[in-house]
Design brief:
45% helix; mainly alpha; 86 residues; globular; two-stranded antiparallel sheet
């Protein structure tokens, strides 16, 4: 008998899902040297992330809850890398 395991999502937390959505939308980018996330300040990318969160929230999260997590994660990320001089 073949047993199958339920696949887990690629992210481990709702915050991880939000970071993935923001990266895919182009709203944030990782510092190439240090790996810190940085907000790019692109309003169109921010809007794409919001639309993606509302249309495809993670399992067990409402569209409004997904939007709140996106906003919280976006507010927790700065626009500069803390380890870079510039």
């Amino acid at each position: 008998m073949l047993l199958t395991k339920e696949r887990r999502p690629a992210f481990r937390s709702v915050e991880g899902w939000a970071r993935l959505v923001l990266l895919e939308a182009g709203a944030i980018r990782e510092c190439e040297e240090h790996g810190w996330a940085r907000v790019l300040g692109d309003p169109h990318a921010h809007e794409r992330a919001i639309l993606a969160a509302r249309h495809d929230p993670p399992p067990g999260v409402s569209p409004d809850g997904a939007l709140a997590v996106i906003e919280d994660v976006l507010l927790s990320i700065g626009d500069t890398c803390p380890e870079c001089e510039t």
